[in-house]
Amino acid sequence: MEEGKGTVCVTGGTGFVASWLIKNLLQRGYCVRATVRCHSSPDDEGITTEKKKDLSYLRKLEGASKRLKMFHGELEELGSYDEAIEGCVGVFHLAHPMDVNGEEGEEKVTKRAMEGTLGILKACLRSKTVRRVVYASSAVTVLYNNGKNALETVDEETWSEIEVCQNGNNIVSSSYLVSKILTEKAALEFGQNNGLEVVSLVLPLVVGPFICPNMPSSVHIALAILLGDHSKYEYLTNSYMVHIDDAANALIFLFEYAHANGRYICSSHQVSFYQVYQLLSQRYPHLHISLPNKLRETTNGDLKFSDLSSRKLLDAGFKFKYGINEMYDGAIQCCKEKGFL
Question: Which residues form the NAD-dependent epimerase/dehydratase domain (predicted)?
Answer without folding.
Answer: 8-258
